[in-house]
């Protein structure tokens, strides 16, 4: 079970490697980016709970990245810097950061600040059910586990996000564009072929008979509809 | 020479294996999704590989680059006009840019369609790169034929408007 998804943004490969190892060992799912631009790209593609952002980076600096990310997302942001002046702290917090850590820092302090920042992140409204039973398939959204016919099935993060969106919007036709933008981000919308591939994979994993799906139904020329079992409503 | 037109001599090379996600199943797992990229031209194939790589990352899949290399009739099937080492090196460079496990299969054949029909499993996922034009192209024709054969085809265009 992942304790949260963290994006580490730092131009120093050694720091990224150490952070990745430390945070992965602490149970977080970690992705890293070398620049602010790359971080923004990753944030468009996937959802994260927290971002650890270096203040001094080439190209789009930490403050600019923080402002841009904060304008579009409410994920927790912790800024990392070697400078410890009042002016820097004020600038970071004004740019939208939730917290500020000065390098060098200890691992326990970093983990404690991450836990504190994650506690403050508001739970998304209408977060949906924690568990879902689809016949012989059980989905636990808390632990991100799917068990089909007694065997654990591995869903990729994107497949899981897609399934979660379906579950949050049951029994209504969801257009391709809406699904693509909800799961892949606002830059997507026309890639219905991509969506078809993911739907096929998801059906293979959660439907008992993927060729004759009972839950993820195709709405011709519109998109897909998730048929929620009555017992789950 | 009997039945030579039906034959395809296949050289299979795992030329480069990218970084596999730590929690991904082992490379030999047959249940993993296979994304088949068909070689058309270098720029189109690089584009197709890029799209396939995105999909493979999000679906925990692996890429198989199929390279049908047509050997014209005056030459024996086992003697392609381009040297085997040259072809292998060329695709090593192409595959080396990938961040996903990539298997390259170079197939010496008389006819590309025949070899694709043999190498692709039923209902395969295929990615083909090509230009964004209203005109008919060889890549579009290939995509159409593969769809008619029951495969799921993603046509990768350059720029943002990605899919057919």
Can you describe what's shown?
- The complex is a heterodimer of chains A (233) and B (164).
- Chain A is an alpha/beta fold and 233 residues long.
- Chain A folds into two domains: 5-118, 3-Layer(aba) Sandwich (Rossmann fold), CATH 3.40.50.2300; 131-226, Arc Repressor Mutant, subunit A.
- Chain A has helices spanning 13-25, 36-45, 62-72, 86-94, 107-120, 157-168, 176-183, 192-206, and strands spanning 5-9, 29-33, 50-54, 76-81, 99-102, 131-134, 137-140, 145-148, 151-153, 173-175, 216-219, 223-226.
- In chain A, the strands form three sheets. Chain A has a five-stranded parallel β-sheet, with helices on both faces. Chain A has a four-stranded antiparallel β-sheet with strand order 6-7-8-9, with no helix packed on it. In chain A, strands 10-12-11 form a three-stranded antiparallel β-sheet.
- The radius of gyration of chain A is 20 Å and the shape is elongated.
- Chain B is built from four helices and six strands; from the N terminus they run ββαβαβαβαβ.
- Chain B is α/β, with parallel strands linked by helices.
- Chain B has one domain (9-17, 34-156): Rossmann fold, CATH 3.40.50.620.
- The radius of gyration of chain B is 16 Å and the shape is globular.
- The longest helix of chain B has 18 residues, at 42-59.
- In chain B, 30% of the residues lie in helices and 25% in strands.
- Residues 17-28 and 160-164 of chain B have low confidence and may be disordered.
- At the A-B interface, helix 6 and helix 8 of A face helix 1 and strand 6 of B.
